[in-house]
Design a protein that fits this description.
It is built from 10 helices and 11 strands. The protein is α/β, with parallel strands linked by helices and 299 residues long. The protein is globular.
Length: 299
């Protein structure tokens, strides 16, 4: 990790011995510390034509301290997990691997079986953070039971959820061991600020970090915006400004995807960007913070 790199703490309630290199993770009194900028892998591993470039990008990102690697059994039906294994299996102790389970595998036995398949594809003996991918008819009580059993066996180190709105989190916390949830991975970026009204404050009250997927809106940000104006004045790209904005939000981990080394380097440089109060205010004029509760968006 670079000396400038922002880190985020996982809650103390989920803290256990790591067995993982301090280069990526540092146990501290308030919880486990992980880099606030990681690497997403949605849509990676789908094409043989881009495979070598994607492997090189993942390796370059780890070299730059972006050691949180996010994947899911859904991504390419396991192909993303296989790509990560091919790229990084010799660097496992530097990594914090996140994977996710389909809702249709959302039962105690289903979670356990899905985890075994992911471990095999990832060629590892543990997943650092295992998430329920979204709500969808799952047995939430059974999912928690499966996660807790996997944690007791050392096959996962932490568990959490993804795409849970506030009412989902309240339901989760009402169940036995539901408050052991380490994080909620959500769609959050400068153009999709709905979680700021209710969900993010609820999580921060419980010292729970958010993981922001598609932190630059899956390349859908406006072609011309205040982001471009700030970027031009600073010699940056609008993408870097948008990513820097996410990284300046408290208790948020960003996991942008980058399929080339050049894109990885561009993302990593966003860690060095500190947007001023004036620039943040300017961003608010176009990308307005929410004034009321909105349903949680998903991609």
């Amino acid at each position: 990790m670079t000396s400038q790199q922002k880190t985020v703490h996982l809650p103390t309630a989920t803290m256990h011995g790591t067995g993982v290199s301090a280069k990526a993770l540092t146990p501290v009194d308030t919880g486990e510390q992980i880099p606030a900028l990681g690497q997403g892998t949605w849509e990676m591993g789908d094409s043989g034509r881009t495979r070598n470039a994607e492997i090189a990008a993942l390796k370059a990102g780890v070299d730059l301290g972006m050691t949180v690697i996010d994947t899911a059994e859904m991504y390419g039906e396991g192909e993303s997990e296989k790509l990560i294994a091919e790229a990084l299996k010799d660097r496992r102790d530097e990594l914090f691997i996140v994977s996710k389970v389909y809702p249709h595998n959302g039962s105690e036995s289903g979670v356990k079986a899905a985890c075994e398949r992911s471990l095999k594809r990832l060629q590892t003996d543990r997943i650092d953070l295992y998430l329920l991918h979204w709500r969808g008819g799952e047995d939430l009580e059974g999912v928690i039971g499966g996660f807790e059993a996997l944690k007791a066996q050392g096959k996962i180190r932490h568990w959490g959820v993804s795409n849970f709105d506030t009412e989902d989190m309240v339901e989760l916390f009402a169940l036995e061991n539901g408050n052991r949830c380490a994080t909620n991975q959500i769609l959050y970026n400068v153009a999709r600020r709905g979680p700021e009204f209710e969900l993010l404050p609820w999580m921060r009250e419980r010292n729970m970090p958010a993981m922001a997927y598609s932190p630059v809106d899956h390349a859908r940000l406006p072609k011309q915006s205040v982001l471009n104006d700030i970027a031009k004045s600073r010699g940056l790209s609008a993408t870097q400004v948008a990513l820097a904005w996410v990284l300046q939000q408290p208790q948020v981990i960003a996991i942008p995807k980058a399929g080339t080394i050049a894109h990885v380097i561009e993302n990593a440089a966003a860690r060095e960007v500190n947007l001023s109060a004036e620039e943040l205010s300017l961003i608010d004029t176009q990308f307005k913070p929410p004034k009321s509760k909105r349903p949680l968006e998903m991609l």
